[in-house]
Amino acid sequence: MHSKSDIKEWMKENGKTCKWLADQCGVSIHTVYGWMSVRREIPSKSLVRIRELMREAAPSLGAVKGIKAGSLKALQLENTILRAYIALHLNPGETLDLDEWIRSSVGNK
């Protein structure tokens, strides 16, 4: 079951507003405000609907357009992917000088 904080986070991540949720659940926006506060519980019927909405709105991976290998756009994309990969493997707060890392990697061959 999703908590209120899970629902709020999902709405924020997916660009959904309380007005949108109210429309989807067939209630007033003030009812949704009440649900999101500590003063009211979300009725089970509405929770079922919210779960359905959360399942339906799986995040899109976006569109991908083909690009010529070796082009500037391809190099920019490779750079972005490399930076994302490295960032995921660094410890929080840790930094890596990419120029230095590349020089040391190429120099070892």
TrEMBL record:
GO molecular function annotation: DNA binding
InterPro entries hit by this protein: Lambda_DNA-bd_dom_sf
Gene3D superfamilies: lambda repressor-like DNA-binding domains
UniProt-recorded name of the protein: Uncharacterized protein
Source organism of the structure: Akkermansia massiliensis
